[in-house]
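Researcher: Please predict.
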Amino acid sequence: MSGAFGGAAGSAGGTGGSCPCGSGGMYAACCGPFLDGTPAPTAEALMRSRYTAFARNDIGYLVRTWHPRTRPEGLCADTGTRWVALAVIDTVDGGPDDESGEVEFEAEWLEGGAAGAGRRQRMHERSRFVRRGGRWVYLDGDQLD
């Protein structure tokens, strides 16, 4: 895992139901518009939408929102992973008028968990985001434990 995602359990498929990012909002009014092309207004919104993209296996969105300088080659869907929780711990800058920002979060997933079973994994990261062409993109992150 390279730590490129940044919610609580939610529906990974379809467009209805609660958003996987854990905001408590409905997907269609939360991360859905971002995955459909509307720019995320903040670094935290981008991080949450990227988490949702991981949960939905939306590789195209992950590629579009990853800085080309740090984006890995050959990113592909991981159907054996089920994303189950996201907690945003801290944000520094990353607002609508900023050019950079950081979001610290913890994400949990089930490895081999596509069918609902699997080994629970956890990641704690401080991610860095920058604006590129007026849009937020994920730059990189530091694993914290």
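Model: Residues 27-143 form a domain with the Nuclear Transport Factor 2; Chain: A, fold (CATH 3.10.450.50).
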